[in-house]
Amino acid sequence: MNLATAFSNCARTQSQKNAIFWGDNRRISYAELLEQSRRVAARLQNVSGVVPGSRVAVWLKNCPEFVPAVFGILMADAVVVPINNFLKPAEVAYILNDGGIDTVITDAALSVHQGELASARPSLKFLRVEDFDALQPSSFGPLPPSARCESDLAVIIYTSGTTGRPKGAMLSHGNLLHNVESCRIVLEAVPEDCLAVILPLFHTYMLTVGIFLPFIIGGSIVLVKSLHPPRAMLQELFSHRATILPAVPSFYRMLLSASIPSPLPVRIFISGSAPLPVQTLRDFEEKFKTPLIEGYGLSEASPVVSKNPLHGLRKPGSIGIPIPRVEMSVQNDQGTLLADNQTGEICVRGGNVMMGYWNQPEETRKALRNGWLLTGDVGHRDADGYYYITDRKKDMLLVNGINVYPREIEEIIYQFPGVKEAAVIGVPDARKGEQPAAYVSALEGQTLDQNALSQFIRSKLADYKVPRRIVFMPALPKNATGKILKTELRKQAAAGM
Fold this sequence. Notes:
- This protein is α/β, with parallel strands linked by helices.
- The protein has three domains: 174 residues, Rossmann fold; 198 residues, Rossmann fold, CATH 3.40.50; 99 residues, ANL, C-terminal domain (GMP Synthetase, Chain A, domain 3, 2-Layer Sandwich), CATH 3.30.300.
- It is built from 14 helices and 26 strands.
- Strands 11-12-13-14-15 form a five-stranded mixed sheet, with helices on both faces. Strands 16, 17, 19, 20 and 21 form a five-stranded antiparallel sheet that branches. A four-stranded mixed sheet has the order 2-1-10-9.
- It is globular, with a radius of gyration of 23 Å.
- The protein starts with a helix and ends with a helix.
């Protein structure tokens, strides 16, 4: 079994069903999606020279063609390398060269950079999605079934590179099929479900939950063209009966500040990619009377690791419990398993854990220890088995030798009226080693008072945790998935901003 055959089997049984909704009028059936995927595979094999194991990049904005691009690559027994469409050509060129990629599937808008990329990698070939309809596989003969097995490489996800050059996490067919099945169980997903796709499809979560999950179980997706205005976006989702909506915390904060009717007719709202402030969770559920489920994952785990359960106890501020067939633990730097309520590094074990990093054996050794994936996230497990992320290991501050976790300070800042976003970083201090500094943005139409915010934090936290500097910004810098870029804030802090 592999991803290509799992999709093909599903598409044949659901051939007349709508697989993709795009805008007001466009509907793509499973039969059309399967045929287009076959055409892409035939083109890659017979024109682009793709052979089993070749890496093929998908550099696209969200569009219906993204899906047959992915399945077409897999049907050609090649490896999918999704690339962030917000990256600049020099950043894309690094990934192409690092991954040994000679074929890129893109569109007219992004292909304007074709010359620049070809200069960096002369062997590069391009296939534009505008040409998909003109592809004619019949002249190449029938496409043989994919011969890949579960241990073969299927996808390389390049990490965001917030701490340096991006690394390519290698995910096998088995890794991804394992995570799809775990997600099917935990989300209680059925063929009648329609998943709302508002996040970038190049992101590892949307690749698994937005493409592989629905198109392996026989569900459908509604691809949203624009998030603005929010009311029109939600109307598009509701008109297509979307039942599952994954998003990032900033999306839910946007809904809170928008004029949106309640209740919302969605079965499950899911928050991931970045920590969900407890205040946002409480405000959302109070306003919309609908559960908002926080989960956790990372590219190296295909990516889903844990979720608060749909039924039973949900704990605000917790990332929940491990999803089925996945293990979690808290360990110290020596690999010793820690007891409940002891703080250490969150570790993951299971069939969803990556094969390693592409061409980086030393980084692979750092990330995998005794069968466990070291996530780099600091946290603990409570007596009920629920996990909590305190912070990123690299983000932890040492103030006078005492551990200070920015997440704890950020949670307090989010409780202050008028705050939209907050991020805390460490800045060097000659006397104490480090001091926390807070970067804050206000909700539209709101004005924040620095002294009042500082006093509010001081009333909630020990003095050594109170930021010595609070900087107000119109908006905090983020990557394409809405994650606040603390690396950019550190640069600004170093420049005295």
